[in-house]
Structures are given as C-alpha cells and as structure tokens.
C-alpha cells in the first residue's frame, strides 16, 4: 500500500511548531521518549519500546565452519526486517532503500565497532566456530527505527546465553542446557545509535524524531556511541549539508543520551537476572500490563473542575446583555414564527416562490438569538427586551409560551418546513444542547 | 597484523607519506565520446571511472518523476578484478546499494536539480582498482564527470578519507591502513562553504579526537579541490585550443 501523503497544512503546522521549539508530544528538543525493555522466557529475546516504536530482537547461535580468511573468528550476522504490521507502507517489494540503509547502518555499528569478541566464539580454529545471528523485527513504526533497533540488538546480545562447549582433542562436546549452564557472550562495549533530525536546512535539530517529524525532516544524522564516549559510527543521510561544529555539538549531546540509555539497559538486565534467579515469573506475558492487551492506552490528563461553577457565574455576571434591537416576531400560525425579513435571495427567478418560506431565511437571526439566550441569567428578567428565544425539541427545557406581540416569545421551531430550517435548527439544537448544559447548571 | 606499524616514529606511513599527505592524483575528463560526461581518476592505486547521462526524460516509471526537480540516479559497482582476490559481486549487493544511495545523497545536494524538473540524471561509477578510499575516488570522479556533462552544480564536491593512529590523524587512507581496523572517516565537502554533503565513520574513535579527524579530512578534501580545479581548467583550455579560439 502506498504511503498516505502528508497534507501541506500538516507539514506546515509541524514545521511551524518546530520553529517555536514545540513538539507534538510535548517533549523538549533533546528529550527521548520512554524506553521500555522487556525480556522473553528464552535467553536472547527481548522487545524494546521507544515510545510507540516496537522492535523485537532474537539472538540464536549455530556451529559452522569459519570464513576462509578469518579462520579463528566467529561470525556475526545481523538482519532487520520491516514487517508489514509495522506500517502498511512496508510491503515486501517496496522497501529496498530504507531496508538497505538500516541494515548497513546496524551492521557497521555493531560489527565494525567490535562490540562482541569474535575470537571467543572460536571452538576449533579453522573448523568450527559459533555463528551468532541477530534477527530484529520491527513491530510498530512510530519513527526512529534505528535507535530502537540498535538498543534491541545490543540488549538481546547481552541477554543471550550460548550453550557450553568443551573440546578434547578432536572431539567437540556440546552440552545441552540441562547439563551445563549456558555461557553469556563476551561483550566489550554497548554501542547505541542516537538520531538527530534536521529541519529547515539545518537550522533546527531534534533528537529522537517520531513518525510525523521524520516525514517533514530534511535529513538525519545518526551517531552511535558507547558509554566510554567512543564514537562507533557516524552516518549522515538525506541530503542535508552539515557544518563541522554541528557535528561536534551533536556528538556531545549523544554522549549524554547514551549514558542514560546504557544505565537503563543495565538496570533492565539486572532486573531480569534477579527475577530469574529468585524463581519469579518472567517473559513477555508477564511484562505486558493487564490493561493493554491489544490497544494502546492513553494516559488520562487530570482536569480540575472544582471551580467551574464559580467561573461560569462570574463570566455571566460580568457579561453585558446585548443591546441590539431585533424586530418583533410575527406569529403566522401556532408553531410558526418569522423574525425579520431575511436577506434577499440571490437565486433569481427560480426561487421566487420560496421567498416567503418562514423561518427558512432566518438562520442568522435564529442562531444569534440562541447565543443571546445563554448569556441571560434569568429568562424572566429580560421580558421587556425584544429578544425572542427559541427552544429546541428537548424535553429538558421549560416551554414558556408568552403572549404574542408584546413579550418575547419562546416558540418551538417546527423542523419540518424546509431543509434550511432543519439544518439551522440542527445547528441550533447542537449549539443549544451544549450551552443548555451550562444553562442548566445556572438555573439550579 | 602484528608488526605492521602504520605510523613510524619519524612520522612516515607505510607508503612513505606524511600524516596529512595525499596520494598522487591524476584525472582525465571526457574519456568516453558517447556519454554526456565522463571522467577517470587515479588516487594512488585506486582507479575509478565515472559516466554521466543526462539530464534526460525519465526512463522506466514516469510516476517516480519529481514535479519540481530532477531525479539523480547513482549506481556503484566494483569490477571483479578490483581487489586482491577476484571476487564476483552480484548487482543487487547490499554494499553496492548503500554506496549508490550515498552517492545519490551527495549529488542531490550539490547538483542544481531545480533547473530540470521531471527529468533524470544518471551517474554510473565503476571502481577498476580498489586500494582504499573507494568512496572518495568515486565522488571525485563523479564530480568531474558531472562537470564534463555541463550540468550546473553549487560547487565542486570533493571527498577524502581520514583515519586516526597513535594520536595523529592520517589523511587519504590506503587499503593497508583501512584493513588494520582503526577508525575511518569519509566525508564529502563543498569547499567554498565548508558544508559536508556526506559524513560517514566506522570503528571506534574517542569523541575528543573527532574534531582532529574532521579537520584533517576537510583539509585533505580542500587539497583535492585544488587539484580537481586545475584539471578542469586544463581540460577547458585544451578544448578551447581545439576549437581554434
């Protein structure tokens, strides 16, 4: 399915908001979204949630023969897949550019930086080595896939345990999980990618862009660092022109962010280790909270409604009743009234016979009178004003039928007369129902 | 690679260069008569060939045409005999794809694509001998080819690689230095404004040294620019002579 295009007004809105240093979800320029890490029952399986972006990482291992030119080193294999459940635009044939870019970046970040000691994966030099496979699946796309994927990859690698092997002469014994405890991989450091999105030709910069922000960005700069402040990878993409000092500034910000994220990862890993040791429950089923089985949950925003009554009364007390004079209503038959003459119809000869339609041309006046009504504190106080009041069909309202001619009337609009009337009365009803609620509070 | 020191005590590298010295660059423009623009560059032992076709009408899917600018299409390929071991590289290879994307990104930023809406510019780059600095050689060759084709650009795009060994930044890495596994930075620069069209770095480098390496690479790119500028002027002078002005 082709990606739905972003409308111009949404694009402009996002860019304007960014110019005013505002983000749609209320974050600051350098803030990350909430990161949640949960582990599965097997070792080496984890789900990382960066805001709403979800990536599942799974590590597996296998004994294979090594590459010819690297006989004493194990093999690391990374694969990121954009499944169609992440976004409808990720069809199997269509994603090649993005897929290549993400995969190459992950490969360079994790393999070239030598975060895993590949020499320790060697069992018999030249014959048998461990091949470690990291499979990452994007489950939900809400921007910033790279960061989430890199965190998932490194967390899964840290969490993984490979089976223990012993070599006696020519014999290799692979111990099952029950015989000997599995052995963790030896990890030198944890590289984590931090993405910076640039807008308006590099004038504005945001950390951790979400999906909307990614659509309107000019380009992306990804810096992968570890907590020792060593840069593992830098990649600029998207055709932005960077200046040297921008890059240096970004690397400083990245250093701070990586330290925070690494701490979070350590805590999550320790938590899981503790839970497993104590024999508590672990796994995905436990880490998904009960309320959010299949739907995203929005947090309730607390609204203080304690002083609504007083405020409303204040506003009404201070409001001046309108002083415009309106012509007296003319009652044609019980239930049908006309106020004023209305605007001259511009439809020409065709509509001449419909000019006389009562109430149909008085949409404007009717709605005005609705507004006036709600500003009145007491209906009775303004009997002398020529403000005709119009009621909806709601049974909540008191129907006061006043004498025609002298006093303002409260008459019911019959909604059958013409389409325009219906539309206006519907509008009036909706408006009135809203304001009726406020009026109801006042009348008590 | 035990025993191979990339930087000797006197400050000489494996091939006898100093830390900030570039390899010998020789370039030639207009090597193919059929293509709109072509160029050949030799940076030390790295040899790259670039060919440009365009701007021409969109080939293939008309739907991909951009209404306000030209589409730049780049393809990168390495010859099978380019590396030490003969290695057959399939066309849709991930690395080749990535290089193509990076070249496209670099040239979309530099070429004035707004002048040619709904058309396509093709840049094909072939590496004939890879001895380190492949990306840089490709970008330099492609710049010359685009200039040869007469397509307007904001500025020259000059690229160079840089590394970091023993506290010193090395410019223009050769294959031996790249294979040693130290940090490598490749950048493409527009010399007049100093803006980086592309920045790419691999392997671990401490943040404090980043500025030093960036400076070394930028300076090397500016040196490349001086050389390419001379090549272009020479070519234009020869062409003018042939035309009899």
UniProtKB/TrEMBL annotation, chain A:
Key word Nucleus present: yes
Keyword terms, alphabetized: Cytoplasm, Exosome, Nucleus, RNA-binding, rRNA processing
Ranges of residues in domain Exoribonuclease phosphorolytic: 32-163, 189-254
SUPFAM superfamilies listed in its UniProt record: Ribonuclease PH domain 2-like, Ribosomal protein S5 domain 2-like
Gene Ontology, cellular component aspect: cytoplasmic exosome (RNase complex); cytosol; nuclear chromosome; nuclear exosome (RNase complex); nucleolus; nucleoplasm
Chain intervals with Acidic residues compositional bias: 349-361
GO MF term (any one): mRNA 3'-UTR AU-rich region binding
Extent of Basic residues compositional bias: 425-444
Annotated segments matching region Disordered: 338-363, 403-444
GO biological process: exonucleolytic trimming to generate mature 3'-end of 5.8S rRNA from tricistronic rRNA transcript (SSU-rRNA, 5.8S rRNA, LSU-rRNA); nuclear mRNA surveillance; nuclear polyadenylation-dependent rRNA catabolic process; positive regulation of cell growth; rRNA catabolic process; TRAMP-dependent tRNA surveillance pathway; U1 snRNA 3'-end processing; U4 snRNA 3'-end processing
Predominant localisation class: cytoplasm
UniProt record similarity statement: Belongs to the RNase PH family.
Subunit-structure text: Component of the RNA exosome core complex (Exo-9), composed of EXOSC1, EXOSC2, EXOSC3, EXOSC4, EXOSC5, EXOSC6, EXOSC7, EXOSC8 and EXOSC9; within the complex interacts with EXOSC3, EXOSC4, EXOSC5 and DIS3. The catalytically inactive RNA exosome core complex (Exo-9) associates with the catalytic subunit EXOSC10/RRP6. Exo-9 may associate with DIS3 to form the nucleolar exosome complex, or DIS3L to form the cytoplasmic exosome complex.
Designated name of the protein: Exosome complex component RRP45
Annotated source species: Sarcophilus harrisii
Lineage: Eukaryota, Metazoa, Chordata, Craniata, Vertebrata
TrEMBL record, chain B:
Gene name tied to this protein: EXOSC4
Annotated family: Belongs to the RNase PH family.
UniProt cross-references to CDD domains, sorted A to Z: RNase_PH_RRP41
Protein's recorded name: Exosome complex component RRP41
Transmembrane intervals: none
Subcellular location: Cytoplasm; Nucleus, Nucleolus; Nucleus, Nucleoplasm
Keyword Lipid biosynthesis set for record: no
Organism annotation: Sarcophilus harrisii
InterPro entries (alphabetical): ExoRNase_PH_dom1, ExoRNase_PH_dom2, ExoRNase_PH_dom2_sf, PNPase/RNase_PH_dom_sf, Ribosomal_Su5_D2-typ_SF, RNase_PH
């Amino acid at each position: 399915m082709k990606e739905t295009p972003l409308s111009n007004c949404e694009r402009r809105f996002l860019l304007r908001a960014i110019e005013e240093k505002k983000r749609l979800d209320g974050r600051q320029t350098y803030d990350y979204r909430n990161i949640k890490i949960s582990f599965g029952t097997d070792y080496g399986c984890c789900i990382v949630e960066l805001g709403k972006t979800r990536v599942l990482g799974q590590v597996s291992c296998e004994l294979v023969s090594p590459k010819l030119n690297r006989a004493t080193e194990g093999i690391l294999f990374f694969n990121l897949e954009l499944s169609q459940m992440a976004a409808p635009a990720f069809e199997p044939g269509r994603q090649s550019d993005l897929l290549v870019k993400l995969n190459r970046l992950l490969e360079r970040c994790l393999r070239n930086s030598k975060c895993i000691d590949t020499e320790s994966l060697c069992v018999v030099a030249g014959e048998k080595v461990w091949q470690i496979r990291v499979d990452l699946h994007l489950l939900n796309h809400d921007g910033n896939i790279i960061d989430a994927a890199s965190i998932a990859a490194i967390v899964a690698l840290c969490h993984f345990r490979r089976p223990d092997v012993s070599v006696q002469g020519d014999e290799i014994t692979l111990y099952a999980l029950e015989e000997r405890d599995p052995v963790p991989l030896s990890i030198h450091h944890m590289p984590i990618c931090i993405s910076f999105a640039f807008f308006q030709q590099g004038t504005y910069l945001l950390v951790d862009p979400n999906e909307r922000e990614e659509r309107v960005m000019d380009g992306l700069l990804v810096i992968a660092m570890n907590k020792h402040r060593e840069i593992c990878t830098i990649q600029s993409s998207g055709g932005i022109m960077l200046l040297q000092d921008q890059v240096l500034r970004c690397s400083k910000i990245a250093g701070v962010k990586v330290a925070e994220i690494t701490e979070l990862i350590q805590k999550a890993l320790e938590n899981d280790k503790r839970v497993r040791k104590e024999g508590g429950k672990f796994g995905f089923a436990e880490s998904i909270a009960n309320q959010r089985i299949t739907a995203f949950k929005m947090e309730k925003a607390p609204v203080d409604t304690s002083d609504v009554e007083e405020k409303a009364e204040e506003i009404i007390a201070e409001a001046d009743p309108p002083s415009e004079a309106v012509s007296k209503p003319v009652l044609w038959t019980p239930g049908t009234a006309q106020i004023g003459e209305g605007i001259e119809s511009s439809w020409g000869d065709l509509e001449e016979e419909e000019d006389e339609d009562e109430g149909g041309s008085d949409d404007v006046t009717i709605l005005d009178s609705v507004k006036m009504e709600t500003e009145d504190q007491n209906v009775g106080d303004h009997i002398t004003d020529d403000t005709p009041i119009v009621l909806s069909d709601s049974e909540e309202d008191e129907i006061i039928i006043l004498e025609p001619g002298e006093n303002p009337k409260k008459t019911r609009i019959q909604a059958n007369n013409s389409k325009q009337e219906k539309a206006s009365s519907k509008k009036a009803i909706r408006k009135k129902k809203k304001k009726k609620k406020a009026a109801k509070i006042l009348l008590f | 690679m035990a025993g191979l020191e990339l930087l000797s005590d006197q400050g000489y590298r494996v091939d006898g260069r100093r830390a900030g010295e570039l390899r010998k660059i020789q370039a030639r423009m207009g090597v193919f008569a059929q293509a709109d623009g072509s160029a050949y560059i030799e940076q030390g032992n790295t040899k790259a060939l670039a060919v440009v076709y365009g701007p021409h009408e969109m080939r293939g899917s008309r739907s991909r045409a951009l209404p306000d600018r030209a589409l730049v299409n780049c393809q990168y390929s390495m010859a099978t005999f380019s590396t030490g071991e003969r290695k057959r590289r399939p066309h849709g290879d991930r690395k080749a794809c990535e290089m193509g994307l990076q070249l496209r990104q670099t040239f979309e930023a530099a070429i004035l694509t707004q002048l040619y809406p709904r058309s396509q510019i093709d840049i094909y780059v072939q590496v004939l001998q890879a001895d380190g600095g492949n990306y840089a050689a490709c970008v330099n060759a492609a710049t010359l080819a685009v200039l040869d084709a007469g397509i307007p650009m904001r500025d020259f795009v000059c690229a160079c690689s840089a590394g970091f060994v023993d506290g010193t930044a090395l410019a223009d890495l050769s294959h031996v230095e790249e294979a040693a596994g130290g940090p490598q930075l490749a950048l493409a620069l527009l010399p007049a404004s100093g803006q980086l069209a592309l920045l790419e770095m691999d392997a671990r480098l401490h943040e404090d040294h980043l500025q030093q390496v960036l400076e070394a690479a930028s300076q090397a790119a500016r040196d490349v620019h001086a050389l390419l500028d001379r090549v272009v002027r020479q070519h234009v002078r020869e062409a003018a002579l042939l035309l009899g002005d």
